[in-house]
Amino acid sequence: MEIPEFTFHVVESADYEEVLHLFWDHFMPWEPATRLTGSCTKLGYRIYNLDSMLRQMLQNNTCWMAKSQHNEIVGVIFCTKITKEDMPSKLPTKSEYIHQGWPTDFTLVMLLLDELCDHQKLLCDNKVNLMLDLFALVVKTNSRGQGLATQLIKETIKNAQTMGVPLVSISCSSAFTQRCSIKLGFSEDKTILYKNWHCDGQKIANVEDIDPIHQAAVSYYKVINL
Predict the structure, then answer these.
(1) Is-above-0.85 flag for pTM?
(2) Degrees, nearest 5: CA angle 75-109-16
Protein backbone atom coordinates (compact mmCIF):
# COMPACT_ATOMS: atom_id res chain seq x y z
CA MET A 1 0.00 0.00 0.00
CA GLU A 2 1.39 3.37 -1.01
CA ILE A 3 1.58 5.90 1.84
CA PRO A 4 0.32 9.34 0.76
CA GLU A 5 2.69 12.27 1.02
CA PHE A 6 1.75 15.16 3.26
CA THR A 7 3.20 18.63 3.69
CA PHE A 8 3.32 20.40 7.04
CA HIS A 9 2.76 24.09 7.74
CA VAL A 10 2.15 26.46 10.62
CA VAL A 11 -1.56 27.29 10.71
CA GLU A 12 -2.13 30.72 9.18
CA SER A 13 -5.08 33.01 9.98
CA ALA A 14 -6.79 32.15 6.69
CA ASP A 15 -7.00 28.51 7.87
CA TYR A 16 -8.28 29.11 11.41
CA GLU A 17 -11.92 28.32 10.71
CA GLU A 18 -11.14 25.17 8.73
CA VAL A 19 -8.87 23.68 11.41
CA LEU A 20 -11.38 24.58 14.13
CA HIS A 21 -14.05 22.82 12.10
CA LEU A 22 -11.77 19.75 12.01
CA PHE A 23 -11.43 19.86 15.79
CA TRP A 24 -15.14 20.20 16.54
CA ASP A 25 -16.47 17.81 13.89
CA HIS A 26 -13.70 15.21 13.48
CA PHE A 27 -12.35 15.02 17.05
CA MET A 28 -14.64 16.08 19.88
CA PRO A 29 -17.70 13.89 19.19
CA TRP A 30 -15.48 10.75 19.31
CA GLU A 31 -12.90 11.74 21.93
CA PRO A 32 -13.11 9.01 24.63
CA ALA A 33 -13.21 11.16 27.78
CA THR A 34 -15.71 13.56 26.23
CA ARG A 35 -17.98 10.68 25.22
CA LEU A 36 -17.86 9.19 28.73
CA THR A 37 -19.10 12.48 30.22
CA GLY A 38 -21.77 12.92 27.52
CA SER A 39 -20.49 16.34 26.49
CA CYS A 40 -19.78 17.62 22.94
CA THR A 41 -21.19 14.53 21.26
CA LYS A 42 -23.37 16.44 18.76
CA LEU A 43 -21.93 17.69 15.49
CA GLY A 44 -21.84 21.47 15.34
CA TYR A 45 -21.80 21.96 19.12
CA ARG A 46 -18.97 24.16 20.39
CA ILE A 47 -17.84 25.17 23.87
CA TYR A 48 -17.13 28.90 23.83
CA ASN A 49 -14.28 28.76 26.37
CA LEU A 50 -12.53 25.88 24.61
CA ASP A 51 -12.98 27.47 21.18
CA SER A 52 -11.42 30.67 22.55
CA MET A 53 -8.50 28.69 24.03
CA LEU A 54 -7.82 27.03 20.68
CA ARG A 55 -7.99 30.37 18.85
CA GLN A 56 -5.38 31.75 21.24
CA MET A 57 -3.07 28.82 20.45
CA LEU A 58 -3.54 29.51 16.75
CA GLN A 59 -2.72 33.18 17.21
CA ASN A 60 0.46 32.25 19.08
CA ASN A 61 1.67 30.36 15.98
CA THR A 62 2.19 27.11 17.89
CA CYS A 63 -0.19 24.96 15.85
CA TRP A 64 0.71 22.96 12.75
CA MET A 65 -1.40 21.41 10.02
CA ALA A 66 -0.95 18.69 7.41
CA LYS A 67 -2.07 19.09 3.82
CA SER A 68 -2.66 16.39 1.24
CA GLN A 69 -1.27 16.41 -2.29
CA HIS A 70 -4.54 18.09 -3.28
CA ASN A 71 -3.87 20.95 -0.80
CA GLU A 72 -6.64 19.75 1.53
CA ILE A 73 -6.12 20.23 5.28
CA VAL A 74 -6.26 16.69 6.66
CA GLY A 75 -4.79 17.09 10.15
CA VAL A 76 -3.87 19.64 12.79
CA ILE A 77 -2.07 19.65 16.11
CA PHE A 78 -2.92 22.38 18.63
CA CYS A 79 -0.02 23.27 20.94
CA THR A 80 0.80 25.87 23.55
CA LYS A 81 4.02 27.04 25.15
CA ILE A 82 4.10 26.85 28.95
CA THR A 83 6.58 28.45 31.34
CA LYS A 84 6.87 28.21 35.11
CA GLU A 85 5.65 31.80 35.31
CA ASP A 86 2.48 30.87 33.39
CA MET A 87 1.45 28.27 35.93
CA PRO A 88 -1.19 29.26 38.51
CA SER A 89 -0.34 28.71 42.14
CA LYS A 90 -3.49 26.59 42.42
CA LEU A 91 -5.45 24.78 39.71
CA PRO A 92 -9.18 25.60 39.37
CA THR A 93 -11.77 23.52 41.19
CA LYS A 94 -14.91 22.22 39.51
CA SER A 95 -16.99 25.12 40.85
CA GLU A 96 -14.36 27.61 39.67
CA TYR A 97 -14.40 26.14 36.16
CA ILE A 98 -18.20 26.41 36.13
CA HIS A 99 -17.97 30.02 37.35
CA GLN A 100 -15.60 30.73 34.44
CA GLY A 101 -18.31 29.59 32.02
CA TRP A 102 -17.29 25.99 31.30
CA PRO A 103 -20.23 23.55 30.87
CA THR A 104 -20.71 21.42 33.96
CA ASP A 105 -20.22 18.08 32.18
CA PHE A 106 -17.04 19.24 30.42
CA THR A 107 -15.46 20.45 33.67
CA LEU A 108 -14.91 16.76 34.39
CA VAL A 109 -12.65 16.52 31.33
CA MET A 110 -10.77 19.66 32.36
CA LEU A 111 -10.19 18.25 35.84
CA LEU A 112 -9.02 14.95 34.33
CA LEU A 113 -6.45 16.78 32.20
CA ASP A 114 -5.28 18.77 35.23
CA GLU A 115 -4.81 15.58 37.24
CA LEU A 116 -3.18 13.74 34.36
CA CYS A 117 -0.33 16.16 33.70
CA ASP A 118 1.26 18.37 36.34
CA HIS A 119 3.08 20.81 34.06
CA GLN A 120 4.70 22.61 36.97
CA LYS A 121 6.19 19.35 38.27
CA LEU A 122 7.35 18.33 34.79
CA LEU A 123 9.19 21.62 34.36
CA CYS A 124 10.81 21.34 37.80
CA ASP A 125 11.72 17.64 37.50
CA ASN A 126 13.41 18.24 34.14
CA LYS A 127 15.05 21.48 35.34
CA VAL A 128 13.69 23.59 32.48
CA ASN A 129 11.61 26.75 32.36
CA LEU A 130 9.83 26.19 29.05
CA MET A 131 7.81 23.40 27.48
CA LEU A 132 5.48 22.81 24.55
CA ASP A 133 2.21 21.06 25.42
CA LEU A 134 0.56 19.12 22.59
CA PHE A 135 -3.02 19.86 23.56
CA ALA A 136 -5.01 18.18 20.79
CA LEU A 137 -4.17 16.06 17.76
CA VAL A 138 -6.80 15.84 15.03
CA VAL A 139 -6.76 13.77 11.84
CA LYS A 140 -9.60 14.03 9.36
CA THR A 141 -11.75 10.90 9.42
CA ASN A 142 -10.99 9.79 5.86
CA SER A 143 -7.23 10.31 6.34
CA ARG A 144 -6.74 8.04 9.36
CA GLY A 145 -4.73 4.84 9.36
CA GLN A 146 -2.00 6.31 7.16
CA GLY A 147 0.53 7.30 9.83
CA LEU A 148 -0.44 10.96 9.74
CA ALA A 149 -0.86 11.34 13.52
CA THR A 150 2.68 10.08 14.10
CA GLN A 151 4.00 12.39 11.39
CA LEU A 152 2.24 15.39 12.95
CA ILE A 153 3.77 14.70 16.37
CA LYS A 154 7.19 14.14 14.79
CA GLU A 155 6.90 17.45 12.91
CA THR A 156 5.93 19.22 16.13
CA ILE A 157 9.00 17.82 17.90
CA LYS A 158 11.17 19.23 15.09
CA ASN A 159 9.51 22.61 15.43
CA ALA A 160 9.99 22.57 19.20
CA GLN A 161 13.67 21.91 18.64
CA THR A 162 13.87 24.79 16.15
CA MET A 163 12.16 27.12 18.67
CA GLY A 164 14.60 26.09 21.41
CA VAL A 165 11.93 24.39 23.52
CA PRO A 166 13.61 21.66 25.63
CA LEU A 167 10.55 19.68 26.72
CA VAL A 168 7.36 18.44 25.06
CA SER A 169 4.31 16.99 26.81
CA ILE A 170 1.16 15.31 25.55
CA SER A 171 -1.93 13.98 27.31
CA CYS A 172 -3.59 11.14 25.39
CA SER A 173 -7.17 10.07 26.01
CA SER A 174 -7.14 7.47 23.22
CA ALA A 175 -5.04 4.37 22.66
CA PHE A 176 -4.20 5.55 19.13
CA THR A 177 -2.36 8.67 20.27
CA GLN A 178 -0.77 6.71 23.10
CA ARG A 179 0.74 4.29 20.58
CA CYS A 180 2.07 7.21 18.51
CA SER A 181 3.72 8.75 21.59
CA ILE A 182 5.39 5.50 22.61
CA LYS A 183 6.57 4.92 19.05
CA LEU A 184 8.26 8.35 19.06
CA GLY A 185 10.13 7.72 22.31
CA PHE A 186 7.99 9.64 24.79
CA SER A 187 8.23 8.63 28.45
CA GLU A 188 5.07 7.80 30.37
CA ASP A 189 4.24 10.27 33.13
CA LYS A 190 0.86 9.24 34.57
CA THR A 191 -2.01 6.87 33.76
CA ILE A 192 -5.64 7.18 34.87
CA LEU A 193 -7.86 4.20 34.08
CA TYR A 194 -11.34 5.35 33.08
CA LYS A 195 -12.84 2.76 35.43
CA ASN A 196 -11.04 4.57 38.29
CA TRP A 197 -11.93 8.10 37.14
CA HIS A 198 -13.54 9.97 40.02
CA CYS A 199 -14.56 13.55 40.83
CA ASP A 200 -15.74 14.70 44.26
CA GLY A 201 -15.91 11.07 45.35
CA GLN A 202 -18.20 10.10 42.47
CA LYS A 203 -17.29 7.61 39.73
CA ILE A 204 -17.51 9.30 36.33
CA ALA A 205 -17.69 6.39 33.89
CA ASN A 206 -19.79 3.25 33.95
CA VAL A 207 -17.60 0.23 33.20
CA GLU A 208 -19.98 -0.94 30.45
CA ASP A 209 -19.60 2.44 28.67
CA ILE A 210 -15.80 2.28 28.48
CA ASP A 211 -14.50 1.40 25.02
CA PRO A 212 -12.31 -1.73 25.38
CA ILE A 213 -9.78 -0.12 23.02
CA HIS A 214 -9.58 3.14 24.98
CA GLN A 215 -9.40 2.16 28.65
CA ALA A 216 -7.20 4.93 30.06
CA ALA A 217 -5.90 8.44 29.69
CA VAL A 218 -2.10 8.67 29.74
CA SER A 219 0.28 11.63 29.86
CA TYR A 220 3.76 11.53 28.32
CA TYR A 221 6.76 13.80 27.98
CA LYS A 222 9.88 13.94 25.85
CA VAL A 223 13.12 15.81 26.49
CA ILE A 224 14.38 17.52 23.34
CA ASN A 225 18.07 17.58 22.47
CA LEU A 226 18.78 21.18 21.48
Answers:
(1) yes
(2) 30
